[in-house]
Design a protein that fits this description.
With about 750 residues, this protein is of the alpha/beta class. It is about 35% helix and about 20% strand. It has 24 helices and 22 strands.
């Protein structure tokens, strides 16, 4: 490390911008719209925001296949059925196209995107009511009018616009109008999209040219390079993990993916990139040698890989802060060297990065920014106090997190960036700037093969679904090798391209037990379509196995909320022995697998809630026994809003339980958000053992017959939210006579 000077902490932000390759090369059609939507919402604004903060240098890692797809949209070559349905006059849509719109045009964050526009939220409520009745997309969309469809077409596009694009005068007028859109309005929002998309890549090029940012790259189609090199590397990262039936070993493909990525970057941005975030932070000694030979100067990965490479654990306290010895190890620029191959490396602070990705969205922006600066400095200052300069690497997804923040997280980022620039001890740099300023880097003779998730590859290989996907890939790769020379070069070229696409990490991200989404079916179909195209372009019929879903037994659409159907009268003791006590209650099941991000803490599994003639009751089930939580103390908060039937005013209440060693030690009940405990708490009961249960009299929360109750639970530790149910929004209960519960189940708040 270098000796500390006036600015004693070097802060590196690397935002990873990535989407899978959604285009079918044979049909030319885009199977999912996320490249277009995230390009409209996140990619432009993240770099444009830096115009307001000169001197704040950052690194943006842009995956080459994402760049190619954005170019496809800008040039008009992209055939996007989602855009086509959004653009077609509502009265010309057939029933199937209307069902398509209702299925896909609500795939957005309910609170921060749909709820931002009252008419969009109103349409979402209608669709949710139909979906609950039919357990899926409504088959009879004739109940949804052309007026509804056109408003949905327009608002579903506005909701995905960047905050800067929302300032466009014509867009602002559409937002002001709010509903009852015309065909001209619809045409306007569609035509604006191409203009906005054309701004994205030039914004990055401009920022890089003036030195505000560095743009790094990834292997072209985002493959897990160590597994492409040789799937047997799994025996090192996780000995005993089940492997696919056939070993996949194609180092030539790994090299091709890296070189193609570097070449495209140079064509688009005019310079050869110096750095690379290898897909999913996945590294091995073999991969680093390939990257070195291709001219890469630095790579970044996760602290878990560093820990396993050094053979020592990085120690954190219960709040995620590193101890002095661990921070000195992590906050360094490393030099990996084997023979004549060398590579600079930085390692992400997993805890700080995940706070931005998963936690701060649930906090007031000012408090979140202050908390980040405080935690980062507390971890880094022991190194600075030794006269050294800590290099703190914050690396995370640059797109998905912002759906969970109001206004795409712009207030949080502005407060954070302003705090950084006004703190004389902080120096925000690009990765290359930090590498160039290092004096004596720490040394690594070998890196442990692993990814940013648990320093292994378990997400992408080892489960029956994962291994079947690898077996299909191996079969297609072997078929290509045996038959490519027998067809015209243009056909073999397409077949190779489809293979490289199928090597991407995203397909196996959704296979196996770790991650699921509303688009599981589409990802499965698209992966098998890419492999089928290999056979088609080589003049053969794909094997029958590719016609069968890989994720065969998975329910693709699950409704997490079940409304209350009967009064409940549970015994409040915190023990999971009274099944019939909660029969008839409303139930909300955590949709913790639906996120495309990895790393969020999940402790809250299920919330039950219900009323009887006198009380409201709530039960929380956990993913693990509270006594086994790693947190020495935590705080469980039950928030309740009462909306009287004849008034628009909302009354707010909080039941806060302080938990230690899995037991409630104390609790307080606060009313109207004042934070002061209520004087009268008679009738409140709490219990916690294997589950949490509570009873609150309706009279205490001023809930009379006809009132709507909105309930949400959250778990906090060290002033930070760990988990919440629901993750977005509230569970709704209506206070009505028992015989009216069924008819009121879908009442709109």
């Amino acid at each position: 490390m270098e000796k500390a000077g006036q600015r004693s902490i070097r802060l590196l932000f690397l935002w990873h911008m990535h989407q899978p390759y959604y285009k079918d090369l044979v049909t030319g059609e885009y199977r999912l719209p996320w490249v277009r939507l995230h390009a409209l919402k996140d990619y432009y604004g993240m770099v444009k925001l830096l115009d307001e903060f000169p001197g704040l240098h950052q690194t943006f890692n842009i995956v080459p296949s994402l760049v190619a797809q954005i170019q496809d949209y800008v040039t008009g070559l992209a055939r996007d059925p989602f855009l086509e349905v959004a653009a077609r006059p509502a009265n010309e849509l057939g029933m199937e196209e209307k069902r398509f719109a209702v299925q896909y045009f609500f795939q957005a964050n309910v609170d921060n995107m749909i709820g931002r526009y009252p008419r969009y939220r109103e349409l979402w409520e209608v669709a949710r009511h139909f979906r609950r009745q039919e357990r899926d997309v409504p088959q009879d969309v004739s109940r949804i009018t052309d007026r509804d469809i056109r408003d949905l077409q327009v608002l579903s596009q506005i909701a995905w616009l960047d905050e800067f694009f929302l300032e466009d005068p014509d867009v602002k007028e559409l937002i002001r109008k709010g509903r009852d859109y015309s065909l001209d309005d619809q045409n306007l929002i569609i035509s604006r999209q191409k203009e906005f998309l054309a701004k994205v890549l030039p914004a990055y090029a401009s920022a890089a040219q003036r030195g505000a940012i560095e743009i790094s790259t990834s292997p072209y189609y985002h493959p897990i390079l160590p597994l492409i090199w040789d799937t047997d590397v799994v025996a090192v990262s996780h000995n005993g993990l089940p492997l696919p039936g056939k070993r996949f070993r194609h180092p030539e493909d790994a090299r091709e993916q890296i070189v193609r990525g570097l070449d495209l970057h140079e064509r688009v941005f005019g310079v050869r990139p110096r750095g690379m975030w290898p897909s999913e932070g996945s590294v091995s000694d073999e991969v680093l040698r390939i990257a070195h030979d291709a001219g890469v100067k630095w790579v970044a990965t996760d602290e878990g890989v560093l820990s396993r490479s050094l053979g020592v654990g990085l120690r954190r306290d219960g709040s995620g802060r590193l101890d002095a010895e661990s921070s000195e190890k992590l906050y360094s620029v490393y030099e990996w060297r084997q023979g004549n191959a060398a590579m600079n490396m930085v390692f992400r602070d997993h805890s700080l990065s995940d706070l931005i990705g998963f936690v701060y969205s649930r906090m007031p922006p000012k408090e979140a920014a202050r908390d980040f600066i405080l935690r980062m400095k507390e971890s880094a200052e022991p190194v600075a106090n030794k006269g050294l300069i800590p290099v703190v690497s914050i690396i995370l997804d640059g797109e998905n997190a912002w759906e969970y923040y109001p206004q795409s997280g712009r207030e949080f980022l502005r407060r954070l960036y302003d705090s950084i620039l006004n703190d004389k001890s902080l120096e925000p740099l690009t990765v290359s700037e930090a590498v160039d300023r290092k004096s004596t880097p720490a040394k690594l003779s070998s890196v442990f093969p692993g990814s940013w998730i648990n320093a292994n590859f378990d997400v992408w290989i080892g489960s029956p679904e994962d291994n079947l996907a690898w077996d299909h890939l191996s079969a297609a790769r072997d078929f290509y090798q045996e038959n490519a020379a027998k067809v015209a070069p243009e056909h073999s070229s397409v077949a190779l391209e489809e293979l490289l696409i199928a090597e991407g990490s995203d397909w196996n991200w959704w296979y196996g037990p770790e991650h699921h989404s509303a688009n599981d079916r589409e990802f499965d179909e698209l992966y098998r379509k890419h492999l089928s195209n290999v056979y088609h372009t080589l003049g053969a019929i794909p094997p029958e196995e590719l016609a069968q879903p890989i994720s065969r037994d998975r329910p693709y659409h699950q409704v997490p909320f079940t409304p209350q159907t009967a009064y409940i009268h549970p015994q409040i003791d915190g023990r999971d022995i009274g099944y019939f006590d909660w029969l008839g209650a409303a139930v909300y099941v955590s949709n913790r697998r639906s996120s495309s991000m990895h790393g969020k803490v999940h402790l809250l599994e299920t919330m039950h809630a219900g009323v009887d003639e006198a009380n409201v009751y709530c039960r929380l089930d956990f993913t693990q026994a509270p006594a086994s939580w790693e947190y020495s103390s935590s705080r469980l908060v039950l928030g309740i809003e009462t909306l009287p039937s004849q008034s628009k005013s909302r009354l707010t209440y909080r039941l806060e339980s302080n938990i230690s060693q899995g037991q409630i030690r104390t609790w307080t009940f606060c009313e109207n958000g004042c934070g002061k405990p209520a004087v009268d708490v008679s009738g409140i009961l709490t219990g916690m053992d294997s589950i949490f249960e509570c009873q609150i009299p309706l009279a205490l929360i001023q809930a009379a017959c006809g009132s709507l109750l909105r309930i949400r639970s959250s778990l906090w530790q060290d002033m930070l939210p760990l988990d919440a149910l629901p993750a977005d929004g509230w569970m709704n209960l209506r206070v009505v006579p028992e015989n009216e519960l069924g008819s009121m189940a879908y009442a709109k708040p």
